[in-house]
Design goal:
The complex is a heterodimer of chains A (445) and B (206). Helices cover 72% and strands 0% of the residues of chain A. Chain A is mainly alpha-helical. Classes of the chains: A mainly alpha (445), B alpha+beta (206).
Chain lengths: 445, 206
């Protein structure tokens, strides 16, 4: 019975902020260039190709996760024919629309590595190839240095081989680009055309789309992150990466929405009720669901206690990584759970922005934890955990070095610049969506 | 048992009633939710304390119009959840990891039991039960706490014998003001409700 929708201003002064957003975007591009250049220089000085590649993978999957989270949010709203979310759907669509260009910073290096690795090189010499990240890409090397692992990985060669790997990556990006285009273009076209046809079409498409989304996200996580340790496997891993997408995507959505309001837009359109629901999404998916999935994956492996499964967690429970793992649990679950559980923390834009920024940061930490730790090659001959831990004690682990921060920050700025560009050219809310009135009047009971 | 007050007799209702039954209060009927909201705001502003709205469906914003403060149920549920979580840990660690005795009506002794070479105090193994007990106690507290705070189940209420009141579950909207309210005066309150646009104001006896 709220009468706010009678007064909500849907004119351009409230639903567009082209100039203000473009100004922000103009500052983000130089920041991205400087940070990425600094990261590249630091990585070049560090001189470790594997570390550099991993750092790049962390930074890239971070912005990929944000986009996929936005895409998932958009699709689930159409799938459930949700009314409440129309007022906050455009930021999600804008985040997802980045999937139209995200193939460039991934496919180009990948194709280059694939081409370099496929080149003929003299026996004994070592050329740069996909094995800079993924050991299975160089079976000869595995055979010589890790014969036990080689036996296992050889059986997976039908799936884990460079040609099929690159082809699959191309398929994932094609699917994501098409989905993002369909939902973003459909929604923005409705801004001028109006009517219910677009809404009905996107509702129909959302079912098959979400199946494609589930499959591509799962297999991309298997390919790009799980196969970093090619002998290891977890059927939960795809879902785990999905929770990362949710954490990063929903947090970014809340931040974008609050920033747009601070620019003076969306007054009376996005209310505390919407902020509370965005907070619920972060709380439910990013905090509780993440912990649920993470623990489910951990407990089965811990209980089974089979070496080929536990090795992955072993790498994260040795030396300083133990501390890192505990901090991840505290920072991604315990602390934000208590902080965000009250409705008031989600309804006040200051506490919601604080929580969202923190959770966005934690999803980068989470990806770092997923991708970087590895049991150093020289230590794999240890026969007991105690021996391994003892040998590993002094092994260097650079957490969140300057290069890491520059790389993640630079990619985030690049991503934010493109998102700002999208938002500066479109309405900030689906102004002619048939459910907009319902959304503006929405109230939590 | 119930006196029907016609609009003209509201000023001196039920004066000829000889029943010993006491007046429970007044019930006013409204045609739609908007009128009910409007009237509820006016009743709140005039300072009544023992009154209520009756509607066939939940109305957004009615609690604000009535000035109802938020329930403390979430805090109680959080406490119950925390208690369940703690109880789950204490129960399992005591029974599986220690061998001291405690007196709980009878003497109970912990039974350290080595399972697949895991440490006796294996926290990960305890988590599912801690989680389930958190959910169990939260859910039970939410359900029964809601009933308790609403003073339910209430098997009898004077309004229920009022013949017209059945439509509160169908297509009419009511405000009832109880006679125990310090401001309640049968004639004055009746006139007040009438002035808010009620299509009828009737006396309910207890």
């Amino acid at each position: 019975m709220s009468h706010s929708h009678d007064h909500a201003d849907l004119g351009p002064s409230n639903t567009r902020a082209d100039a203000a957003i473009a100004r922000i975007g103009g500052r983000l591009l130089p920041a991205a260039v400087v940070l990425l250049a600094a990261a590249a220089w630091l990585a070049w000085k560090g001189g470790n190709a594997n570390q550099t590649a991993k750092l790049y993978l962390v930074s890239f999957t971070f912005i990929l996760a944000i986009s996929l989270g936005g895409l998932f949010f958009t699709m689930i709203q159409f799938l459930t024919r949700a009314g409440w979310s129309v007022a906050v759907r455009r930021p999600a669509e804008a985040l997802a629309s980045n999937l139209r260009w995200l193939w460039i910073p991934f496919m180009l290096p990948l194709l280059w590595l694939w081409w370099k690795g496929g080149q003929h090189h003299e026996p004994g010499t070592h050329a740069l190839g996909l094995d800079v990240l993924w050991p299975w890409a160089n079976l000869e090397h595995m055979q010589q240095h890790e014969p036990a692992e080689y036996e296992n990985v050889l059986k997976k060669a039908g799936w884990l081989n460079p040609n099929f790997f690159v082809l699959r990556a191309a398929i994932y990006f094609a699917v994501w680009a098409v989905l993002a285009t369909v939902f973003f273009k459909g929604s923005t076209a409705q801004d001028s055309a109006g009517g219910t046809a677009t809404t009905e079409r996107l509702q129909k498409l959302s079912g098959p789309s979400i199946i494609l989304f589930g499959l591509t996200v799962t297999f991309a996580a298997f390919d790009w992150m799980m196969s970093l340790t090619p002998t290891w496997f977890s059927t939960m891993f795809g879902v785990y990466f999905f929770t990362v997408c949710c954490t990063a995507g929903f947090s970014a959505m809340a931040l974008v929405t609050i920033r747009l309001q601070s620019l003076g837009a969306l007054k009376g359109i996005v209310t505390r009720e919407h902020l509370q629901d965005l907070g619920k999404y972060i709380f439910a998916f990013g905090i509780v669901f993440w912990a649920y999935i993470g623990f489910s994956q951990y407990m089965l492996i811990w209980y089974g206690n089979i070496p080929e499964e536990t090795t992955w967690f072993m790498a994260r429970q040795m030396g300083d990584w133990t501390v890192f793992s505990w901090l991840l649990i505290a920072g991604h679950f315990v602390v934000p759970f208590v902080f965000m559980i009250s409705r008031w923390m989600k309804r006040w834009n200051v506490t919601l922005a604080l929580s969202a920024a923190w959770m966005l940061f934690m999803s980068a930490v989470d990806l770092y934890w997923l991708i970087v730790p590895v049991i150093p090659a020289g230590l794999v001959d240890a026969t007991t955990y105690a021996e391994l831990a003892e040998k590993h004690k002094d092994a260097p682990v650079g957490f969140f070095t300057l290069a890491t921060l520059c790389s993640i920050g630079g990619m985030l700025c690049l991503f934010a610049w493109r998102t700002a560009r999208t938002l500066s050219r479109n309405h900030l809310v689906p102004v002619r969506d048939p459910r907009l009135g319902e959304s503006i009047a929405f109230q939590n009971i | 048992m119930t006196t029907f007050a016609t609009p003209s007799s509201t000023t001196a209702p039920a004066s000829t009633e000889t029943s010993v039954a006491q007046t429970w209060g007044l019930v006013a009927r409204f045609a739609n939710p908007a009128e009910l909201m409007h009237a509820a705001e006016a009743v709140r502003k005039s300072g009544y304390r023992y009154w209520d709205c009756h509607s066939p469906f939940p109305i957004h914003g009615i609690d604000h119009a009535m000035g109802i403060s938020r329930t403390i149920l979430p805090v109680v549920v959080f406490g119950a959840g925390a208690a369940g979580c703690t109880a789950g840990f204490l129960l399992q660690s005591f029974t599986n990891s220690f061998d001291f005795s405690i007196w709980a009506l009878v003497w109970v002794t912990g039974y350290p039991f080595l399972i697949s070479g895991k440490p006796l105090l294996s926290f990960p193994a305890f988590v599912p039960v801690m989680f389930e007990l958190t959910i169990l106690l939260s859910a039970l507290t939410a359900a029964f706490g809601m009933l308790a705070f609403n003073q339910l189940p209430e098997l009898y209420h004077p309004l229920l014998k009022h013949p017209g009141f059945g439509r509160a579950t169908d297509d009419r909207f009511f405000i009832s003001i109880e006679a125990r309210d310090p401001q309640f005066l049968r004639s004055k309150t009746g006139e007040f409700l009438k002035s808010l646009g009620a299509s009828s104001v009737e006396v309910v006896e207890s």
